[in-house]
Amino acid sequence: MKTFPMFLKMQDRHVVIVGGGEQAAQKARLMLKTEAEIVLLSHELDEELRNLVATGRAHHDTDAPGVESFAGAALVFIATGCVGLDAALHALAKEAGALVNVVDQPDLCDAYTPSIVDRDPVVVAIGTEGNAPVLGRMIKTQVEELLEPRLGDMARLAGRLREAVTHHVAPEARRGFWRWMFSGEPRRLHARGSEHRAARLLKQAIAAGQDPQARLNGTVSLVGAGPGDADLLTLRAVQRLQEADIIFVAPGIDPALLEQARRDAERVHLPVPDGALAWPRERLEQRISTEARHGRSVVYLLAETPSMAQLEPFEALDDEGILVELVPGAMAAVPASAGGGSGQSSATF
Protein backbone atom coordinates (compact mmCIF):
# COMPACT_ATOMS: atom_id res chain seq x y z
CA MET A 1 0.00 0.00 0.00
CA LYS A 2 1.20 3.48 -0.82
CA THR A 3 -1.47 4.95 1.45
CA PHE A 4 -2.63 3.86 4.91
CA PRO A 5 -6.39 3.90 5.60
CA MET A 6 -7.35 5.58 8.86
CA PHE A 7 -10.42 7.27 10.33
CA LEU A 8 -9.85 10.80 11.62
CA LYS A 9 -11.75 12.32 14.54
CA MET A 10 -13.49 15.44 13.27
CA GLN A 11 -15.26 16.70 16.37
CA ASP A 12 -14.09 20.21 17.37
CA ARG A 13 -11.92 20.48 14.26
CA HIS A 14 -12.33 22.45 11.07
CA VAL A 15 -12.03 21.64 7.38
CA VAL A 16 -11.19 24.25 4.75
CA ILE A 17 -12.76 23.91 1.31
CA VAL A 18 -11.35 26.27 -1.31
CA GLY A 19 -13.74 26.95 -4.16
CA GLY A 20 -17.33 28.00 -4.63
CA GLY A 21 -18.70 25.73 -7.35
CA GLU A 22 -19.92 22.17 -7.81
CA GLN A 23 -16.63 20.46 -6.97
CA ALA A 24 -16.43 22.37 -3.70
CA ALA A 25 -20.08 21.52 -3.00
CA GLN A 26 -19.32 17.83 -3.47
CA LYS A 27 -16.65 17.98 -0.79
CA ALA A 28 -18.96 19.98 1.46
CA ARG A 29 -21.66 17.31 1.18
CA LEU A 30 -19.11 14.75 2.29
CA MET A 31 -18.00 16.82 5.28
CA LEU A 32 -21.61 17.45 6.31
CA LYS A 33 -21.70 13.81 7.40
CA THR A 34 -19.10 14.66 10.06
CA GLU A 35 -19.08 17.00 13.06
CA ALA A 36 -16.33 19.16 11.59
CA GLU A 37 -16.67 22.92 11.21
CA ILE A 38 -16.68 23.73 7.49
CA VAL A 39 -14.87 26.83 6.26
CA LEU A 40 -15.55 27.88 2.66
CA LEU A 41 -12.75 29.94 1.16
CA SER A 42 -13.93 31.70 -2.01
CA HIS A 43 -15.16 35.11 -3.16
CA GLU A 44 -18.26 33.61 -4.79
CA LEU A 45 -20.39 30.65 -3.70
CA ASP A 46 -23.05 28.77 -5.61
CA GLU A 47 -26.56 28.58 -4.20
CA GLU A 48 -26.04 25.28 -2.40
CA LEU A 49 -22.99 26.58 -0.55
CA ARG A 50 -24.68 29.90 0.24
CA ASN A 51 -27.50 27.96 1.88
CA LEU A 52 -24.99 26.13 4.08
CA VAL A 53 -23.64 29.48 5.25
CA ALA A 54 -27.14 30.88 5.78
CA THR A 55 -28.11 27.94 7.99
CA GLY A 56 -24.92 28.19 10.03
CA ARG A 57 -23.57 24.84 8.89
CA ALA A 58 -20.57 26.47 7.19
CA HIS A 59 -18.54 29.65 7.51
CA HIS A 60 -17.63 31.85 4.56
CA ASP A 61 -14.16 33.40 4.42
CA THR A 62 -13.77 35.97 1.63
CA ASP A 63 -10.26 37.09 2.55
CA ALA A 64 -7.44 36.55 0.07
CA PRO A 65 -5.96 33.14 0.93
CA GLY A 66 -2.66 33.00 2.78
CA VAL A 67 -0.78 30.50 4.89
CA GLU A 68 -2.84 31.54 7.91
CA SER A 69 -6.04 30.52 6.08
CA PHE A 70 -5.06 26.87 6.47
CA ALA A 71 -3.48 26.90 9.90
CA GLY A 72 -4.84 24.19 12.20
CA ALA A 73 -7.12 22.61 9.60
CA ALA A 74 -7.78 18.90 9.94
CA LEU A 75 -8.16 18.69 6.15
CA VAL A 76 -7.96 21.05 3.20
CA PHE A 77 -9.86 20.45 -0.05
CA ILE A 78 -8.83 22.60 -3.01
CA ALA A 79 -11.39 22.73 -5.80
CA THR A 80 -11.22 26.01 -7.72
CA GLY A 81 -11.26 24.32 -11.14
CA CYS A 82 -8.12 26.20 -12.20
CA VAL A 83 -5.04 23.97 -12.37
CA GLY A 84 -2.54 26.79 -11.80
CA LEU A 85 -4.48 28.36 -8.93
CA ASP A 86 -5.00 24.98 -7.30
CA ALA A 87 -1.24 24.37 -7.36
CA ALA A 88 -0.51 27.77 -5.78
CA LEU A 89 -3.09 27.20 -3.04
CA HIS A 90 -1.66 23.73 -2.45
CA ALA A 91 1.74 25.31 -1.75
CA LEU A 92 0.20 27.69 0.81
CA ALA A 93 -1.69 24.89 2.55
CA LYS A 94 1.42 22.71 2.74
CA GLU A 95 3.39 25.60 4.22
CA ALA A 96 0.75 25.71 6.94
CA GLY A 97 1.32 22.00 7.60
CA ALA A 98 -2.13 20.91 6.42
CA LEU A 99 -3.25 17.59 5.00
CA VAL A 100 -4.36 18.45 1.46
CA ASN A 101 -6.59 16.98 -1.23
CA VAL A 102 -6.56 18.75 -4.60
CA VAL A 103 -9.50 17.66 -6.75
CA ASP A 104 -8.50 15.77 -9.90
CA GLN A 105 -4.77 16.21 -9.22
CA PRO A 106 -3.60 12.99 -7.51
CA ASP A 107 0.05 14.09 -7.50
CA LEU A 108 -0.89 17.00 -5.21
CA CYS A 109 -2.91 14.87 -2.79
CA ASP A 110 -1.74 13.82 0.66
CA ALA A 111 -5.06 12.00 1.07
CA TYR A 112 -7.64 10.62 -1.33
CA THR A 113 -11.39 10.81 -0.87
CA PRO A 114 -12.72 7.24 -0.69
CA SER A 115 -16.04 5.87 -1.80
CA ILE A 116 -18.05 5.58 1.41
CA VAL A 117 -20.73 3.19 2.59
CA ASP A 118 -22.39 5.05 5.45
CA ARG A 119 -24.19 3.10 8.18
CA ASP A 120 -23.15 5.58 10.86
CA PRO A 121 -21.37 4.69 13.11
CA VAL A 122 -20.42 1.80 10.81
CA VAL A 123 -18.49 3.30 7.93
CA VAL A 124 -16.81 1.42 5.10
CA ALA A 125 -14.31 3.36 3.00
CA ILE A 126 -13.10 2.02 -0.35
CA GLY A 127 -10.01 3.57 -1.87
CA THR A 128 -7.94 2.96 -5.00
CA GLU A 129 -5.19 5.52 -4.24
CA GLY A 130 -6.66 7.73 -6.93
CA ASN A 131 -6.08 5.14 -9.68
CA ALA A 132 -9.61 3.91 -10.34
CA PRO A 133 -12.38 5.90 -8.64
CA VAL A 134 -15.01 4.28 -10.87
CA LEU A 135 -13.95 0.86 -9.56
CA GLY A 136 -14.19 2.20 -6.01
CA ARG A 137 -17.78 3.28 -6.66
CA MET A 138 -18.63 -0.12 -8.14
CA ILE A 139 -17.30 -1.86 -5.03
CA LYS A 140 -19.28 0.59 -2.91
CA THR A 141 -22.47 -0.50 -4.66
CA GLN A 142 -21.72 -4.14 -3.90
CA VAL A 143 -21.04 -3.42 -0.23
CA GLU A 144 -24.21 -1.33 0.01
CA GLU A 145 -26.16 -4.42 -0.99
CA LEU A 146 -24.43 -6.53 1.70
CA LEU A 147 -25.13 -4.24 4.67
CA GLU A 148 -28.71 -3.75 5.80
CA PRO A 149 -29.82 -0.10 6.12
CA ARG A 150 -30.39 -0.35 9.90
CA LEU A 151 -26.96 -1.80 10.72
CA GLY A 152 -25.80 1.50 12.21
CA ASP A 153 -28.66 1.40 14.71
CA MET A 154 -27.52 -2.03 15.82
CA ALA A 155 -23.95 -0.82 16.22
CA ARG A 156 -25.22 1.99 18.46
CA LEU A 157 -27.18 -0.59 20.48
CA ALA A 158 -23.93 -2.51 20.96
CA GLY A 159 -22.32 0.66 22.24
CA ARG A 160 -25.10 1.14 24.79
CA LEU A 161 -24.78 -2.47 25.94
CA ARG A 162 -20.99 -2.57 26.11
CA GLU A 163 -20.73 -1.54 29.77
CA ALA A 164 -23.34 -4.11 30.83
CA VAL A 165 -21.50 -6.84 28.90
CA THR A 166 -18.24 -5.85 30.61
CA HIS A 167 -19.86 -6.15 34.05
CA HIS A 168 -21.90 -9.32 33.56
CA VAL A 169 -20.24 -11.46 30.87
CA ALA A 170 -16.96 -13.21 31.64
CA PRO A 171 -13.96 -11.96 29.60
CA GLU A 172 -13.47 -15.29 27.87
CA ALA A 173 -17.12 -15.27 26.70
CA ARG A 174 -17.35 -11.68 25.44
CA ARG A 175 -15.98 -12.20 21.95
CA GLY A 176 -18.43 -15.04 21.43
CA PHE A 177 -21.27 -12.88 22.75
CA TRP A 178 -20.53 -10.12 20.24
CA ARG A 179 -20.12 -12.67 17.45
CA TRP A 180 -23.55 -14.08 18.31
CA MET A 181 -25.07 -10.60 18.40
CA PHE A 182 -23.85 -9.68 14.92
CA SER A 183 -24.14 -13.05 13.19
CA GLY A 184 -26.99 -14.76 14.99
CA GLU A 185 -30.63 -14.26 15.85
CA PRO A 186 -30.32 -10.70 17.29
CA ARG A 187 -29.04 -9.31 14.00
CA ARG A 188 -31.65 -11.19 11.97
CA LEU A 189 -34.42 -9.82 14.19
CA HIS A 190 -33.04 -6.29 14.06
CA ALA A 191 -32.67 -6.36 10.27
CA ARG A 192 -36.33 -7.37 9.96
CA GLY A 193 -37.41 -4.39 12.05
CA SER A 194 -37.89 -6.26 15.35
CA GLU A 195 -35.51 -4.03 17.30
CA HIS A 196 -37.29 -4.51 20.62
CA ARG A 197 -37.19 -8.30 20.34
CA ALA A 198 -33.50 -8.19 19.44
CA ALA A 199 -32.72 -5.92 22.39
CA ARG A 200 -34.73 -8.14 24.76
CA LEU A 201 -32.86 -11.24 23.58
CA LEU A 202 -29.52 -9.51 24.08
CA LYS A 203 -30.40 -8.30 27.57
CA GLN A 204 -31.51 -11.79 28.56
CA ALA A 205 -28.16 -13.18 27.45
CA ILE A 206 -26.30 -10.45 29.35
CA ALA A 207 -28.33 -11.15 32.51
CA ALA A 208 -27.37 -14.83 32.16
CA GLY A 209 -23.74 -13.73 31.92
CA GLN A 210 -22.76 -15.89 29.00
CA ASP A 211 -22.25 -16.33 25.30
CA PRO A 212 -25.45 -18.11 24.19
CA GLN A 213 -23.49 -20.18 21.69
CA ALA A 214 -20.54 -20.91 23.98
CA ARG A 215 -19.12 -24.36 24.38
CA LEU A 216 -17.65 -25.48 27.69
CA ASN A 217 -14.18 -25.47 26.17
CA GLY A 218 -12.30 -24.29 23.15
CA THR A 219 -11.92 -25.73 19.67
CA VAL A 220 -9.11 -27.27 17.66
CA SER A 221 -9.18 -26.86 13.88
CA LEU A 222 -6.55 -28.41 11.66
CA VAL A 223 -6.68 -26.21 8.56
CA GLY A 224 -4.92 -27.07 5.34
CA ALA A 225 -3.40 -24.35 3.19
CA GLY A 226 -4.06 -26.42 0.07
CA PRO A 227 -2.15 -25.15 -2.98
CA GLY A 228 -1.04 -22.18 -0.88
CA ASP A 229 -2.90 -19.35 -2.61
CA ALA A 230 -4.94 -17.13 -0.30
CA ASP A 231 -7.77 -16.79 -2.81
CA LEU A 232 -8.20 -20.57 -2.92
CA LEU A 233 -8.96 -20.99 0.76
CA THR A 234 -12.41 -22.37 1.46
CA LEU A 235 -14.97 -20.26 3.26
CA ARG A 236 -14.73 -22.51 6.32
CA ALA A 237 -10.95 -22.19 6.42
CA VAL A 238 -11.23 -18.40 6.33
CA GLN A 239 -13.90 -18.48 9.06
CA ARG A 240 -11.67 -20.53 11.35
CA LEU A 241 -8.75 -18.16 10.79
CA GLN A 242 -11.05 -15.22 11.58
CA GLU A 243 -12.28 -16.87 14.79
CA ALA A 244 -8.92 -18.13 16.05
CA ASP A 245 -7.43 -16.96 19.34
CA ILE A 246 -4.12 -18.64 18.56
CA ILE A 247 -2.70 -19.97 15.28
CA PHE A 248 0.13 -22.50 15.05
CA VAL A 249 1.75 -21.87 11.68
CA ALA A 250 3.57 -24.80 10.09
CA PRO A 251 6.73 -24.17 8.03
CA GLY A 252 6.18 -23.37 4.38
CA ILE A 253 3.00 -21.31 4.85
CA ASP A 254 2.75 -18.33 2.53
CA PRO A 255 2.53 -15.19 4.76
CA ALA A 256 -0.28 -13.94 2.49
CA LEU A 257 -2.56 -16.63 3.96
CA LEU A 258 -2.26 -15.03 7.39
CA GLU A 259 -3.81 -11.86 6.00
CA GLN A 260 -7.07 -13.82 6.24
CA ALA A 261 -6.60 -14.31 10.00
CA ARG A 262 -7.81 -12.19 12.88
CA ARG A 263 -5.29 -9.42 13.31
CA ASP A 264 -5.04 -9.80 17.11
CA ALA A 265 -4.78 -13.59 17.10
CA GLU A 266 -1.63 -14.93 18.73
CA ARG A 267 0.65 -16.56 16.16
CA VAL A 268 3.17 -19.29 16.85
CA HIS A 269 5.48 -19.92 13.89
CA LEU A 270 6.80 -23.45 14.10
CA PRO A 271 10.40 -24.15 13.04
CA VAL A 272 11.27 -26.65 10.32
CA PRO A 273 10.93 -30.24 11.57
CA ASP A 274 14.63 -31.11 11.19
CA GLY A 275 15.97 -27.78 12.44
CA ALA A 276 17.82 -27.13 15.67
CA LEU A 277 14.76 -25.40 17.16
CA ALA A 278 12.24 -28.01 16.02
CA TRP A 279 9.38 -28.84 18.38
CA PRO A 280 8.92 -32.51 19.32
CA ARG A 281 5.52 -33.71 18.13
CA GLU A 282 4.43 -34.39 21.70
CA ARG A 283 5.22 -30.84 22.75
CA LEU A 284 3.12 -29.36 19.94
CA GLU A 285 0.19 -31.68 20.65
CA GLN A 286 0.32 -30.87 24.36
CA ARG A 287 0.46 -27.12 23.72
CA ILE A 288 -2.52 -27.24 21.35
CA SER A 289 -4.53 -29.33 23.84
CA THR A 290 -3.68 -26.98 26.71
CA GLU A 291 -4.77 -23.90 24.76
CA ALA A 292 -8.09 -25.57 23.87
CA ARG A 293 -8.69 -26.62 27.49
CA HIS A 294 -8.30 -22.97 28.44
CA GLY A 295 -11.26 -22.14 26.20
CA ARG A 296 -9.32 -20.80 23.24
CA SER A 297 -10.11 -21.33 19.56
CA VAL A 298 -6.99 -23.01 18.18
CA VAL A 299 -6.01 -23.31 14.52
CA TYR A 300 -3.13 -25.48 13.39
CA LEU A 301 -2.38 -24.20 9.88
CA LEU A 302 -0.69 -26.87 7.78
CA ALA A 303 0.98 -26.54 4.41
CA GLU A 304 -0.50 -29.85 3.30
CA THR A 305 -4.05 -31.17 3.45
CA PRO A 306 -4.63 -32.37 7.04
CA SER A 307 -5.37 -36.06 7.51
CA MET A 308 -7.43 -38.09 9.94
CA ALA A 309 -4.18 -39.47 11.37
CA GLN A 310 -3.18 -35.96 12.41
CA LEU A 311 -6.42 -35.64 14.37
CA GLU A 312 -5.88 -38.83 16.37
CA PRO A 313 -3.70 -37.26 19.10
CA PHE A 314 -6.61 -34.96 19.97
CA GLU A 315 -9.35 -37.60 20.19
CA ALA A 316 -9.38 -37.44 23.98
CA LEU A 317 -10.42 -33.78 23.84
CA ASP A 318 -13.81 -34.82 22.54
CA ASP A 319 -14.67 -36.33 25.92
CA GLU A 320 -14.02 -32.92 27.46
CA GLY A 321 -16.52 -31.15 25.19
CA ILE A 322 -13.87 -29.70 22.88
CA LEU A 323 -14.69 -29.63 19.18
CA VAL A 324 -11.90 -31.08 17.05
CA GLU A 325 -12.22 -30.75 13.29
CA LEU A 326 -10.36 -31.15 10.05
CA VAL A 327 -10.79 -28.31 7.55
CA PRO A 328 -9.33 -28.79 4.06
CA GLY A 329 -7.96 -25.48 2.92
CA ALA A 330 -8.89 -25.49 -0.76
CA MET A 331 -11.05 -27.44 -3.14
CA ALA A 332 -8.05 -28.39 -5.22
CA ALA A 333 -6.59 -30.11 -2.18
CA VAL A 334 -9.67 -32.15 -1.25
CA PRO A 335 -9.98 -35.78 -2.40
CA ALA A 336 -13.08 -36.42 -4.50
CA SER A 337 -14.52 -38.71 -1.81
CA ALA A 338 -14.37 -36.06 0.93
CA GLY A 339 -17.35 -33.90 1.83
CA GLY A 340 -19.43 -34.79 -1.20
CA GLY A 341 -17.31 -32.52 -3.40
CA SER A 342 -18.09 -29.39 -1.40
CA GLY A 343 -14.48 -28.64 -0.56
CA GLN A 344 -15.57 -27.67 2.97
CA SER A 345 -15.91 -30.99 4.76
CA SER A 346 -14.90 -31.34 8.39
CA ALA A 347 -14.37 -34.41 10.50
CA THR A 348 -15.60 -34.02 14.05
CA PHE A 349 -15.13 -36.55 16.83
Automatic annotation (TrEMBL):
Source species, domain of life: Bacteria
Alphabetical UniProt keywords: Methyltransferase, NAD, Oxidoreductase, Porphyrin biosynthesis, Transferase
Signal peptide start-end: none
Example GO biological process: siroheme biosynthetic process
Top EC class for this record: oxidoreductase
InterPro entries registered for this protein in UniProt: 4pyrrol_Mease, 4pyrrol_Methylase_sf, 4pyrrole_Mease_sub1, Met8-like, NAD(P)-bd_dom_sf, Sirohaem_synt_dimer_dom_sf, Sirohaem_synthase_dimer_dom, Sirohaem_synthase_N
Protein name: precorrin-2 dehydrogenase
Naturally occurring in which organism (per UniProt): Aliiruegeria lutimaris
Lineage: Bacteria, Pseudomonadati, Pseudomonadota, Alphaproteobacteria, Rhodobacterales
